[in-house]
Amino acid sequence: MITFISPAKGFNNTKIKAKSKPQMLDYSKEIMKNLKKLSSEDISTLMKVNDEIAILNKERFDSFNFEHDSLPAIYAYNGLQYKNINIDDFDNKDIDFITKHLRILSGLYGYLRPMDCISPYRLEMMTKLSLHGYKNLYEFWSDSIFKCFLKDLNKDNTLLNLSSDEYSKTIIKHIKTYNKKIDNTKQIKFVTCTFKVEKSGKLKTESTASKIARGKMLCFITKNRINKFTKLKDFTEDNFKFRQDLSTEKDNFIEYIFVKTK
């Protein structure tokens, strides 16, 4: 089972050394060529950010050098999901497991392993950056990220989605196309964990609660060496409980619903 998550907008400094280079640097360098052409005003408009953030990222893009990448991705990203992975509590065996079983999707780097080296940047996958005739990053990356997953999948052919819709969209249509072409027993199982909060008898998906739960789920998977998606039902962190009655499965697309009652 390969789990994938979204990146984060914030970054940490760390003394931990990266162990590998991103696999899709040729794509990343083409994107960066276009980003370096943007003014801070262009960045503000394109990314819908304030002037301070636009100036910061203009400076990042102008000085960006892939040869100087140094931060391992799993340690570098700083956001609610990443904080709740508790990576600083991982031992060497935990790092080995997560390196094998986790991937991070990125608008700039495409497909990252946890210990791949990256530099601070801001580029969400939904950004409508035009390059080489493509109107956005989804078109630019096309099925290239999905093909990386195909190389890494093990015999059970299971992908676990702990990302936002913005990033899972990058591969879903390609999985559907792929599954239609092959025997049912060899099709990819696409499992999504959805976390809902019950308030006044109604179920709602809250962004903050979901990000925290995704991080805790990844920690749970790593610490317990989980490699079968059915074992995810045992997750009870932060008072979430699996709800079989709400969960669904159709054409190898499975959604596990976890509910937290306040």
Description of the molecule:
- The chain is an alpha/beta fold and 262 residues long.
- The protein has one domain (2-261).
- It is built from ten helices and 13 strands.
- It has helices at 25-35, 40-47, 51-62, 73-76, 80-83, 92-101, 137-141, 144-152, 165-181, 207-223; strands at 2-5, 10-11, 71-72, 77-78, 102-106, 110-112, 117-118, 158-161, 189-199, 202-204, 240-242, 248-250, 253-261.
- The strands form three sheets. Strands 1, 5, 6, 8, 9, 10, 11, 12 and 13 form a nine-stranded mixed β-sheet that branches.
- Helix 2 (40-47) crosses helix 3 (51-62).
- The longest helix has 17 residues, at 165-181.
- The two termini are 32 Å apart.
- The model has no long low-confidence stretch (mean pLDDT 94).
